Each structure stands twice: as structure tokens, then as C-alpha cells.
Amino acid sequence: MECKHSSGVTQRLARIAGQVNGIRDMVEEGRPCDDLLVQLSSASSALTQVARLIMAEHLEHCVLAGFETGDRETTVENLKKATVEEIAQAGGISQSVANDVYEFVQNSL
Question: Are 3 and 63 in contact, with CB atoms under 8 Å apart?
Fold first, then answer.
């Protein structure tokens, strides 16, 4: 299934790309480490917000479509993969939140 994402995802990623380019420039200019760390923290937080937005869109569109087509088992497995295995390991959401989402979906079946 092809996923369609909101323009907000694209806009946020463009902003993050600019932020990362700015950080690279700061490194090349020899800017102080504390300035770099502040900017890196900001970029990391922005990526986490994009991950959350994509997860919300995934739940609203992909998961819903999977349930509507009757492919619940595959939908739940894909959701588990997206939450527990990928996003949680990348730090986008905590492992406990990922497990709670997965359990909620399982119990909703």
C-alpha cells in the first residue's frame, strides 16, 4: 500500500534539513561545542516530532484501511513492526508507549 503523507511532514523535513546544514556549517566554522549540542538537540527533537506525526498518519490511514479491508492480522503485525521494533529502537517513542499501542490494537480486535 502506498502511503500519502501530509504537507506538514514535508515542510518539517525541509526545515530539519536546513537545520542540519546549518549545524554542518557551524562545525566547519569551529563553533563552540555547547552551541553545536544545543542545535543537535533541537534537530533531534524535530525528528522525533516528525516520527510522531508519521505515526499518527499511519494510525489514521494505513491501520484504518487495513482493518476496513479485513486484513487485520497483517495490519497488526505491521503496526507492531512500526512501533515496537523501529520507532522505539530509534528513540522516537518509548518502549512502554509502543507496547501500550500494540496491546490496545490487539485488544481492539
Answer: no
DSSP of 26-74: HHHHT--HHHHHHHHHHHHHHHHHHHHHHHHHIIIIIIHHHHHTT-HHH
Residues in the chain, pLDDT under 70: 1, 83-109
**At CB < 8 A and 24+ separation, what contacts does 40-45 make?**
43/16, 43/19
Q: Which residues contact 100 (CB under 8 A, 6 or more apart)?
A: none
| Cα–Cα distance measured from residue 97 to residue 104, given in angstroms and rounded to the nearest whole number | 10
- Residues 1-10 have pLDDT tens digits of 577 888 999 9
Query: Whole-angstrom Cα distance, residue 42 to residue 62?
Result: 29
DSSP letters for 11-22: HHHHHHHHHHHH
| Side chain identity, residue 5 | H
